[in-house]
């Protein structure tokens, strides 16, 4: 008889990027990883007035993270400092969660062909290349294998209204998942993505018509609803655990089944 397995991340070290406020999907993931027993580390985006630092530190206080550090993915020195802090505190890293994306709001709608070179490059650097850079820095710390998880959206594989430039960034991100999974598999490091349904977050507020998209999900998705941060967090906890030991290079849809529908 096969023994019963439970999702247990006790003793695992998990670093979660991209927490902005209580509605962040990253915050939902951090809470579920913490509930499963993982040690948590988080970052905040530094700014001159320290607003993000204060907000993030207050929000994450209930889960008592071991590490809270600044990080801007456009600053190589800050990225390296973040991983030095992880190495100094934990010595090893088991789980890394990438929840970062950016596109200039004015290029999320209208004609896609007007997107200028600098806006295109910046969006792909922050939204997609950052995963590659993080994986390179995480690799030496995942001495016993590990799980790298990122967040995508169906707009990376199908045209969605008011998504434009971000759709291209998510498409690149999903291919990054596959190439990184192929490279890192020999070290037992798994790389997967979660494609979540639309959720009202700080990031999604930039997408025009987000309320209409959620209403459409309520009518069109097989489960007749959209999903919650907790549900995405549960899937992340599964992908971070040994229960998903045979899964890598995949994009898991957590969208109440919307992806399967033709109309």
From TrEMBL:
- InterPro entries (UniProt xref): Enoyl-ACP_Rdtase_NADH (IPR014358), NAD(P)-bd_dom_sf (IPR036291), SDR_fam (IPR002347)
Cross-referenced SUPFAM superfamilies, in alphabetical order? NAD(P)-binding Rossmann-fold domains
The residues the record assigns to binding NAD(+) are 18, 24-25, 100, 170, 199-203
Alphabetized, the UniProt keywords read: Fatty acid biosynthesis, Fatty acid metabolism, Lipid biosynthesis, Lipid metabolism, NAD, Oxidoreductase
Q: What is its EC number?
A: 1.3.1.9
Source domain of life is Bacteria
Q: Which GO terms describe its molecular function?
A: enoyl-[acyl-carrier-protein] reductase (NADH) activity
Report residues binding substrate. 103
Looking up CDD domains in the UniProt record yields: ENR_SDR
Active site as annotated:
153, 163
Q: Which GO terms describe its biological process?
A: fatty acid biosynthetic process
Pathways involved: Lipid metabolism; fatty acid biosynthesis
Q: Which reaction does it catalyse?
A: a 2,3-saturated acyl-[ACP] + NAD(+) = a (2E)-enoyl-[ACP] + NADH + H(+)
* Gene3D superfamilies reported in the protein's UniProt record: Enoyl acyl carrier protein reductase, NAD(P)-binding Rossmann-like Domain
Q: Which NCBIfam families match?
A: PRK07370.1
Q: Give the protein family.
A: Belongs to the short-chain dehydrogenases/reductases (SDR) family. FabI subfamily.
Q: What is this protein called?
A: Enoyl-[acyl-carrier-protein] reductase [NADH]
Q: Which organism is it from?
A: Hyella patelloides LEGE 07179
């Amino acid at each position: 008889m096969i023994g019963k397995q439970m999702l247990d991340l006790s003793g695992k070290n998990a670093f979660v990027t991209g927490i902005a406020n209580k509605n962040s999907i990253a915050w939902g993931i951090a809470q579920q990883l913490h509930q499963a027993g993982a040690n948590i580390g988080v970052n905040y985006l530094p700014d001159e007035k320290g607003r993000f630092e204060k907000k993030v530190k207050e929000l994450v206080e209930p889960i008592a993270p071991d590490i809270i550090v600044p990080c801007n993915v456009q600053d190589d020195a800050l990225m390296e400092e973040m991983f030095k802090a992880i190495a100094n505190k934990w010595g090893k890293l088991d789980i890394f969660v990438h929840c970062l994306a950016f596109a200039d709001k004015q290029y999320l709608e209208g004609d896609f062909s007007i997107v200028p070179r600098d806006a295109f490059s910046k969006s792909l650097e922050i939204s997609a290349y950052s995963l590659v850079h993080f994986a390179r820095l995480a690799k030496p710390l995942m001495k016993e294998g590990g799980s790298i998880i990122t967040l995508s959206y169906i707009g990376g594989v199908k045209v969605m209204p008011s998504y434009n430039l971000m759709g291209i960034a998510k498409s690149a991100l999903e291919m990054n998942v596959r190439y990184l999974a192929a490279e890192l598999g020999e070290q037992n490091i798994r790389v997967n993505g979660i494609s979540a349904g639309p959720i009202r977050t700080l990031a999604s507020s930039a997408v025009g018509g987000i309320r209409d998209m959620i209403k459409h999900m309520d009518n069109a998705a097989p489960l007749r609803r959209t999903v919650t941060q907790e549900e995405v967090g549960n899937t992340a906890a599964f992908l971070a655990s040994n229960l998903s030991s045979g899964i890598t290079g995949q994009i898991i849809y957590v969208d109440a089944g919307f992806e399967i529908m033709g109309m």
